[in-house]
Write a structure and sequence with these properties.
The complex is a heterodimer of chains A (226) and B (363). With 226 residues, chain A is mainly α. Chain A is 78% helix and 0% strand. The longest helix of chain A has 31 residues, at 161-191. In chain A, 47% of the residues are buried. Chain B is of the alpha+beta class. Chain B folds into two domains: 18-319, no CATH class; 330-362, no CATH class. Chain B contains six helices and 18 strands. Chain B has helices at residues 5-29, 124-133, 137-145, 260-263, 330-333, 341-362, and strands spanning 33-37, 42-43, 48-56, 70-77, 80-83, 89-91, 96-102, 107-115, 118-122, 153-167, 183-187, 198-206, 209-210, 215-221, 270-273, 279-284, 288-299, 308-319. In chain B, the strands form three sheets. In chain B, strands 2, 4, 5, 8, 9, 10, 14, 15, 17 and 18 form a ten-stranded mixed β-sheet that branches. In chain B, strands 1-3-7-6 form a four-stranded antiparallel β-sheet, with no helix packed on it. In chain B, a hairpin with an 8-residue loop joins strand 17 (288-299) and strand 18. In chain B, helix 1 crosses helix 2 (124-133). The chains are: A mainly alpha (226), B alpha+beta (363). The A-B interface holds A 3-4, 8, 12, 15-16, 18-19, 21-23, 25, 27-30, 32-33, 35-38, 44, 48, 52, 54, 155-159, 195, 197-199, 201-203, 205-206, 209-210 and B 42, 44-46, 106, 168-170, 225, 320-321, 323, 328, 330, 332-334, 336-341, 343-344, 347-348, 351-356, 358-360, 362-363.
């Protein structure tokens, strides 16, 4: 590590790990809401899930942090959205699922990847950086599969099944837009500040730590049945 | 001084033997309620579901129900009542009879089981004890008032039970269909359109007519998914020594052990009395699986064999809470399993802030 040593990094990681338990709660209350709230409830739960699904938000923040122009942000977000729509709708409709912890562990790695890439980690390791747009598309597919796994963990019934999936997806997109507004705003304002380089490093190191923490948390959940 | 042994003997009998045998009678001779029970009463369309016949208390089943006892076993939905094939019932063990089936399309379903009448002969004290502990208090009062407590009884009993469960989101209108059982509960509102904190009006029908002035007991347990039931462990020991016994109201041969105080609780919960229209208003204080029970007993005067006839009814359903903005916020969804959203955000900001200070200093 160039700026912080290993001991400091691990201390920060341990500080952060307990906070990771809140990423992606699917609660009985959500289930009850879906059972009785109709299609609107699916939009609501989709949006809420995105807004409180910190791994998705961290990846999005990482993705837009690297980009300077609004056009680029729009392009990357569109690719990410198409990616997660494909797997969210497709996997849910065809009932393809996987262990939630393992899917979320891969999503955590996407956060770690984004932090490393933004910090020029690949360049420092003398590894050619993968195509950014392609990676965002692939991670979009993975995040969509994570969202699908989550949606499938609810009892959705057979009635209006496709409509429910689409409404959940619509909610996810609405949540994503709502989350992106403050992220892009803060980034735009911070770029003008002379302390932006320190802020940039701080946020991306945070993504690295969060990615590792989330990954460990999900693996712990997988092996200990949490 | 000459001891009057007959007086001592009588005293001993009254003070020690009588209560002891009464206790034994209570322990061994309590009757069995019959319930239709499910793990959850909220099902998904076409999911596989198991319906259990609990013959004992709502918590513990102590006997199976043999198929030849079933006069009717049927499921009603979408206006169509279908008989359950007797071969579909399976005895899970010596205590629980179960039916596994596909839940079918969305809707509000009613299932019912009606059993044949059987006779039982009970000594006067056994009969009185059973009347007391099973809540047949009107008959006990009648016997007390008419100095009949010392009369033995031969009772004909029959059981008729129903369950109402919800499949999917769609509420359909079969919940108030009369099954034409000799006695049955009929709710006046779909229980799945009622929520905890509300009340449900239920009518008691005997031979299709409202049954007034009848004692009804209503109780509930927390929903099955909220905690685990050790449904199948009926073997307990008393002071390390197990005992076995038979139950007079179900004369299948069986041999098992159990905790009498726990297993034979029949009159817990709300004690209600039907009005002139046979109606009772049941409180639904919190989420849970609710069960109503009643035993309607009459004196039989025109039979050489029988002294009493009883008709037993139960009804089971599940109640959950209302789900709207007044009872839920999304914030609280995330309070259930861990740190709230603000905790995560504050924690993240703190870490970013520390990192920022570190990097600013380095720069």
């Amino acid at each position: 590590m160039k700026y912080i040593n290993l001991k400091q990094g691990l201390s920060l990681l341990l500080l952060f790990v307990p906070l990771l338990g809140v990423a992606h709660d699917v609660t009985s209350a959500d289930q009850e809401l879906l059972r009785n709230g109709g299609l609107w409830a699916y939009i609501q739960v989709g949006a809420t899930h995105m807004l409180t699904g910190y791994d998705h938000l961290l990846f999005l923040a990482g993705a837009v942090f690297y980009l300077n122009s609004f056009k680029d942000i729009l392009k990357f977000i569109t690719v990410f959205t198409i990616g997660h729509c494909i797997t969210l709708i497709g996997a849910t409709y065809t009932a393809i699922t996987a262990n939630e912890h393992l899917v979320d562990a891969v999503i955590a790695l996407s956060v770690l990847y984004k932090g490393i890439e933004n910090l020029d980690g690949f360049k420092k390791m003398n590894v050619k950086s993968p195509n950014l747009l392609l990676m965002v598309g692939i991670f979009g597919l993975i995040h969509g599969f994570g969202l699908s796994t989550r949606l499938q963990s609810f009892d959705n019934g057979q009635e209006q099944f496709l409509a429910k999936i689409l409404c959940f997806n619509l909610g996810v997109e609405a949540g994503q837009v709502l989350a992106l507004i403050p992220i892009v705003l803060i980034l735009t304002l911070s770029r003008k500040h002379n302390q932006f380089p320190a802020f940039y490093k701080a946020v991306n190191w945070y993504l690295v730590l969060a990615g590792i923490g989330l990954f460990m948390f999900q693996l712990y959940g997988y092996f200990h049945g949490h | 001084m000459k001891l009057n042994t007959s007086v001592i003997s009588k005293e001993f009998k009254n003070k020690f033997c009588k209560p002891f045998f009464m206790l034994l009678a209570f322990m061994f001779l309590c009757s069995h309620d019959l319930y239709l029970k499910m793990e959850t009463y909220f099902l998904q369309p076409n999911q596989e579901v198991t319906l259990s016949l609990y013959n004992g208390t709502f918590e513990n089943s102590e006997n199976i129900i043999t198929r030849d006892r079933m006069l009717d076993a049927s499921i009603l939905a979408h206006g169509k009542r279908e008989a359950i094939n007797p071969n579909q019932w399976q005895d899970q063990d010596s205590t629980i009879t179960q039916l596994t089936f596909n839940a079918g399309e969305a809707g509000t379903y009613v299932a019912g089981v009606s059993t044949k009448a059987r006779n039982i002969a009970l000594a006067a004290e056994e009969f009185n004890s059973y009347l007391e502990h099973d809540g047949v208090l009107d008959m006990l009062e009648y016997r007390t008032n008419h100095n009949l407590l010392d009369q033995d009884a031969v009772e004909s009993y029959q059981k008729h039970v129903k369950v109402i469960y919800q499949v999917g989101d769609t509420k359909t209108n079969d919940w108030n269909t009369v099954f034409s059982y000799p006695i049955e509960f009929v709710p006046q509102t779909n229980p799945y359109e009622k929520y905890s904190g509300e009340k449900l009006e239920v009518q008691l029908l005997s031979d299709g007519k409202p049954l007034p002035n009848q004692l009804v007991f209503a109780d509930y347990i927390k929903s099955a998914h909220a905690h685990t039931h050790n449904d199948h462990s009926h073997k307990h020991e008393h002071g390390g020594e197990a005992h076995s016994h038979e139950h007079p109201h179900d004369d299948e041969e069986h041999d098992h052990t159990h905790e009498p105080q726990e297993a034979h609780t029949h009159t817990s919960g709300q004690q209600l009395r039907t009005n002139a229209q046979g109606m009772v208003m049941v409180d639904l204080p919190e989420d849970g699986i609710y069960y109503l029970r009643t035993i309607h007993m009459i004196n039989v005067t025109d039979s050489d064999e029988l002294t009493h006839q009883s008709k037993w009814a139960t009804l089971t359903f599940e109640i959950t809470h209302k789900h709207d903005s007044s009872t839920h916020t999304h914030e609280e969804h995330h309070h259930e399993d861990g740190i709230p959203t603000w905790g995560f955000i504050l924690g993240s900001l703190l870490i970013i802030g520390v990192l920022f200070l570190v990097f600013r200093k380095k720069n």
